[in-house]
Design brief:
Layout: H1 2-19, H2 22-49, H3 67-90, H4 95-100, H5 102-107, H6 113-146, H7 152-179, H8 183-203, H9 215-221, H10 232-256
Length: 263
């Protein structure tokens, strides 16, 4: 019975993604952004040469990056713009329904709060995986065409690790969306926490070696042959536990305050 309810809720979320065209425009933005980095890296010397403001006879020599460097740079770009796009696309995943009163109407029925939250999370995760697969695939295609082939094992590991990081960012957005009235505030808080995790992990690499904020660096390092393992499995496990905790916390918030009238 509960599984049937969960599937109904999940189909509702998928239908909402289709109606809002998020399953179309979010992957398209990721694809365009993913293809942009290798193309810009390839044509950067020509762009600078034709930009003007250079004295006659001036020669600018820019070393050509390797394919692995281009892919690592692309992931770094996704760590900023990609998370921003994701947070903005799902910022009202709960708060918008609470504002319209739809959440309280749904939860009046014998529906588990956890099922309600996890159905939304699953739809968000599908959106993340599809969008990032398109963006990462576009980057990989143009990197291979313009530079050189990249090992598929390294690319698969980088994709999975960075997808997990994006799912964590989405989980943060979902949690804050269940807590705050404003979807924009939820997105801002999620972006702030994600940035704080990444910055503190970079500033204190030894003390925070197992922090989920290490995930972007682990994804970049898949293209660095000299990089070590850096506790990858432990970081992945802690990230999964953190996401489960965020979902449980979001369910608890909704159980306590299912509507804006209760806030």
């Amino acid at each position: 019975m509960r599984m049937r309810q969960w599937l109904v809720l999940y189909r509702k979320e998928q239908l909402e993604l289709l109606r809002s065209y998020k399953l179309l425009w979010v992957p398209l933005v990721f694809i365009l952004y993913g293809a942009m980095q290798p193309v810009m890296s390839y044509f950067l010397p020509d762009i600078i040469a034709h930009a003007g403001n250079l004295p006659p006879g001036a020669v600018i020599t820019i070393p050509k990056p390797t394919a692995s460097e281009v892919m690592a740079q692309t992931l770094q770009q996704f760590n900023t713009i990609g998370i921003l796009i994701l947070s903005l696309s799902v910022m009202g995943i709960i708060s918008a329904e609470r504002s319209s009163g739809l959440t309280s109407m749904i939860l009046v029925k014998p529906i588990s709060y956890l099922s309600f939250v996890t159905a939304k999370w699953a739809a968000m995760a599908v959106l993340v995986l599809i969008a990032f697969a398109g963006g990462f695939g576009g980057a990989l295609y143009y990197t291979t065409a313009l530079f050189d082939a990249v090992g598929w094992q390294h690319s698969l590991s980088a994709y999975l690790l960075f997808s997990l990081w994006l799912c964590l960012a989405g989980s943060l957005t979902l949690f804050f969306s269940s807590w705050l009235r404003s979807g924009a505030a939820a997105a801002a808080c999620a972006l702030g926490v994600a940035a704080l995790l990444a910055l503190t992990s970079s500033a204190f690499p030894d003390a925070l070696a197992y922090s989920p904020g290490v995930l972007p660096h682990l994804a970049y390092s898949q293209y660095d042959a000299a990089a070590g393992d850096n506790h990858t499995l432990a970081v992945v496990a802690i990230t999964l536990v953190s996401m489960l905790a965020l979902l449980a916390a979001a369910s608890a918030v909704l159980r306590k305050r299912p509507s804006l009238d209760a806030i």
